[in-house]
Amino acid sequence: MSRNRDLLSKIGLRLDGRRPDELRRIRCKLGVFTEPDGSAYLEQGLTKVLAAVYGPHQVRGGRSKAQHDTAIINCQFSMAVFSTTDRKKRPRGDRKSTELSMHLQQALEAVIKSELYPWSQIDVYVEVLHADGGIYTACVNAATLALIDAGIPLKEYVCACTASLANNDVPMIDISHQEEIIGGPTLTVAALPMSGKIVLMEMSQRFHMDHLEKVLNKALQGCKDIRQILDEAVRLHVRDIGSSTGWANTS
Amino acid sequence: MPQKIQIRLASHRVSTSVAVNQRYPKIFTPGEVITSQNEFMRGHGTYEENSDLKASVAGVRQQVNNLISIRPLKSRYNGEVGDVVVGRITEVQQKRWKVATNSRLDSVLLLSSVNLPGGELRRRSAEDEHMMRQYLQEGDLISAEVQSVYSDGSLSLHTRSFKYGKLSQGVLVKVFPSLIKRSKTHFHNLPIGASVILGNNGFIWICPIINNSEDGASGFIQNLEEVVPRQDRETIGRIRNCILSLSQSKMMLYDTSILYAYEESLKYTVPELLVQEAMVDVAILTQQRLCMLEDT
């Protein structure tokens, strides 16, 4: 209990000086690579993530996998060996990476209008360059941007956010690595912010049922805030490209 | 020969934007409601939910009568009949070749839609089927035209004209398909001494000047013996670098823009053109000249 109190100081500030309902700074950039169809770079605090999207393209490696009514969505999550404090042995293929790949795939399958692309495949690769808490959320947000950059139809943005409970009473969002270590349950939510649907929810520890609602609401509010930030970045990017090409292929 | 190596920090990155300050249309992003009146039909890049018409891609709105579609600024190549494409053979199958054309699915080139050597009107015999790999094998580059679009979205190509066929010596540049401007002709013999094929699918082929005077059925002859003079190769290299700098700054590619970029690039040597500052400089100067051309 005493450790838990440290999450929030007496004047209501967190370890890094944020208020409980403040996100870390999000900076993002679309179209960072030329080879993939779509790519994005996203910083959420110190967590840095690159995402690349290839496709939709012909199914590679065994045509039997191809689906006649939808596209296959293939996600690969990997963490650079230098992304954590102690050097990782392998960047992908371990249990945690495989699990995160599957979760990412679930979140993306919920938004991609894959029925438009029969017999095809969409590859999404995410690479964590610097892990500082909220890896999954950063990956989902970066993957969304990369998919939009690739021009793949989405129902809407899918955004993810973490939330936790400080002092057994104050919900706070966007948990950093430091706060994850100190303790407190972390709730990860991936949601469609416009319609309020939840596509993935995960908890690291248990806490009392009574608190769930307010923590969840905070996390959903966080998703909405993130969507605003991503949306702004997308608009800026589209405007920039459009002005360079003179809107030639669009009018 | 001493080589200059350029290594720079990420913080010294050059902004590649050459955006011209002008009015921009309304931009739609995924999930945004376009209209809630249901008298409109939904086109590409839109979907209907709760009787609202919503955007599914980030782009600008296009309306033809009652049909509303949202066009993304970047996507895979969507073929249309009559497009010129450049592609690479990936597979040889029964009576057909599979061609990678940067499209959603691999395209098909049927044996019956190529001009075989030795006369135009010739029956395709079983022998021809066995000879298929001799005409085109995996990895060969071809230029072709889109003949039709199948229901699943894959393309059927044809090379029934002397313009199309196997490509021999030259350089391939890949750009995003939306950067290619649609025009009457996509084959350009540039006056600076090189030919350019601007494939609608974003594949650009640069090669020495082609003489069309040769016999018509030469579509499958690949002359790799002939040595292209050094001057021609430098021109080709320079055009390639110019195209890269234009596409890096997201400028439209067509004969005029490539020519202007070439002329503006002459103050640099060919390897210097790969330095970020030089690339942006060329793009900005080209953009200015194009704007002046538009104003007059």
Automatic annotation (TrEMBL), chain A:
Q: Which organism does this sequence originate in?
A: Phaedon cochleariae (Mustard beetle)
Q: Which GO terms describe its biological process?
A: nuclear mRNA surveillance; poly(A)-dependent snoRNA 3'-end processing; rRNA catabolic process; U4 snRNA 3'-end processing
The protein's matches in PANTHER family, at most eight in alphabetical order, are given as: EXOSOME COMPLEX COMPONENT, EXOSOME COMPLEX COMPONENT RRP41
Q: Which InterPro entries match?
A: ExoRNase_PH_dom1, ExoRNase_PH_dom2, ExoRNase_PH_dom2_sf, PNPase/RNase_PH_dom_sf, Ribosomal_Su5_D2-typ_SF, RNase_PH
Occurrences of domain Exoribonuclease phosphorolytic (ranges): 22-153, 157-221
Q: Which family does it belong to?
A: Belongs to the RNase PH family.
One MF term in GO for this entry?
Answer: RNA binding
**Gene3D superfamilies from the UniProt entry:** GHMP Kinase, N-terminal domain (3.30.230.70)
Q: What is this protein called?
A: Exosome complex component RRP41
Q: Which GO terms describe its cellular component?
A: cytoplasmic exosome (RNase complex); nuclear exosome (RNase complex); nucleolus
TrEMBL record, chain B:
Keywords (alphabetical) are: Exosome, Nucleus, RNA-binding, rRNA processing
Question: Which InterPro entries did the record assign?
Answer: Exosome_cplx_N_dom, Exosome_RNA_bind1/RRP40/RRP4, KH_dom_type_1, KH_dom_type_1_sf, NA-bd_OB-fold, S1_RRP4
Checking Gene3D superfamilies in the record gives: 2.40.50.100, Nucleic acid-binding proteins (2.40.50.140)
Which residue ranges does the record assign to the K Homology domain?
A: 170-207
Protein origin, superkingdom: Eukaryota
Q: Name one Pfam family in it.
A: ECR1_N
Where does the RRP4 S1 domain lie? Answer: 76-148
A GO cellular component term found in this entry reads: nuclear exosome (RNase complex)
Give start and end of each Exosome complex component N-terminal domain: 27-63
> What biological-process terms (Gene Ontology) are attached?
CUT catabolic process; exonucleolytic trimming to generate mature 3'-end of 5.8S rRNA from tricistronic rRNA transcript (SSU-rRNA, 5.8S rRNA, LSU-rRNA); nuclear polyadenylation-dependent rRNA catabolic process; poly(A)-dependent snoRNA 3'-end processing; regulation of gene expression; TRAMP-dependent tRNA surveillance pathway; U4 snRNA 3'-end processing
Q: Where in the cell is it found?
A: Nucleus
User: Do the record's keywords include RNA-binding?
Assistant: yes
**PANTHER family for the chain:** EXOSOME COMPLEX COMPONENT RRP4, PNAS-3 RELATED
Q: Indicate what this protein is called per its UniProt record.
A: Ribosomal RNA-processing protein 4
